[in-house]
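Thread: "does anyone have the structure for this chain?"

Original post by V.I.:
We have the sequence but no experimental structure in hand. Need at least a predicted one for the grant figures.
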Amino acid sequence: FPGATVPFFVGRQASMDALERALAGDRAIFVVTQRDSSVENPDENDLYKFGVLGRVLQVMRLPNGTVKALFEGSRRGKLLATKLDEKEYLAQVQPVDENAFDIDLEKLKKQAEMVRELFKNHVDQRKIKLSKEILDSLDQVDFLQVSDKVSSLLEIPGEKKQQLLETLNPETRLQQVLDILKDEMKIVQLEDKLKKEATDQISD
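Reply from O.Q.:
Generated one for you, tokens below.
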């Protein structure tokens, strides 16, 4: 997600060649998720249309021949075309202009604050191991970036994360994150209720 710094692993030769090309230049790359990870040589139809533009911060070569790279996302991008050129992947990408949407800033600020608080409660209730630095950084993030920050930290299926990535309107996206957190809260409450009922039955 934009604003997130995440590690990823590169194993295919074409992807490694593309990474080497980026490292030799300005380190800019476009990261996009493959629909089916079992496809060995994916073409354009095997990739989602939206990904993240950013840059490679660090690279570590592993003993098994793969590469671990640290990626910092900067903004959304739409994949227009791909080609395999001299055994490396090249992509034509259109950056997404999120300023094009007419949004209610005051409403967005209130929603962002709700998301911050609900996410912290979610981490506490689920006993999710996140460092204090990460949680504190959520308070420092601009309200327009809260949805992406939380989305990158949520333990939800990849398809849901992709849906959030493809939701371009910041107001709509923040509402979706809010709905996910509210649903998670309901699940926790239901689990607690069932545990209490089970304990009461044992006591009887």
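V.I.: this helps a lot. The helical segments are 13-24, 105-125, 132-140, 146-153, 158-166, 170-203.
O.Q.: and The domain at 99-203 is CATH 1.20.58 (Methane Monooxygenase Hydroxylase; Chain G, domain 1).
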